[in-house]
Design brief:
By secondary structure, this protein is mostly helical. It has two helices and no strands. It is rod-shaped.
Length: about 120
């Protein structure tokens, strides 16, 4: 392996200390909580969060409204279906009664014709 360099302990410790120092400098270079840029970003995030909450509330209200409308439509359809079924049941009873009356009238006619032949 060309170019391989075996670092001794002192050099490794120096590199580690240098890396720690760079990390510390980077951390110290960060702006504080009262920095105008940090405050501005915090306010932007708060505004975004508030807008998100408003949109979520609007979506929930819309979903509730749609669910209410759907329930009302289903109730109306149920009432219409029940009314149609009752109407059909009444019409069936009337048809059955009319058919029974026709059968009785036919039976009575045949009976009257038979009696008339016998005389």
């Amino acid at each position: 392996m060309r170019g391989f360099k075996d670092y001794d302990v002192k050099e490794r410790l120096a590199r580690a200390a240098e890396a720690r120092q760079k990390a510390l400098e980077k951390f110290k270079a960060r702006p504080g909580p009262d920095d105008p840029e940090v405050v501005k970003r915090r306010e932007e995030r708060a505004a975004i969060a508030a807008a998100r909450e408003v949109r979520e509330a609007e979506r929930k209200a819309q979903k509730a409204k749609e669910a209410e409308e759907r329930a009302a439509r289903e109730a109306i359809e149920k009432v219409e279906r029940e009314a149609r079924e009752r109407r059909e049941a009444i019409e069936k009873v009337i048809r059955d009664a009319a058919e029974a009356a026709e059968r009785k009238a036919e039976r009575d006619r045949r009976y009257a014709a038979r009696k008339a032949r016998q005389k």
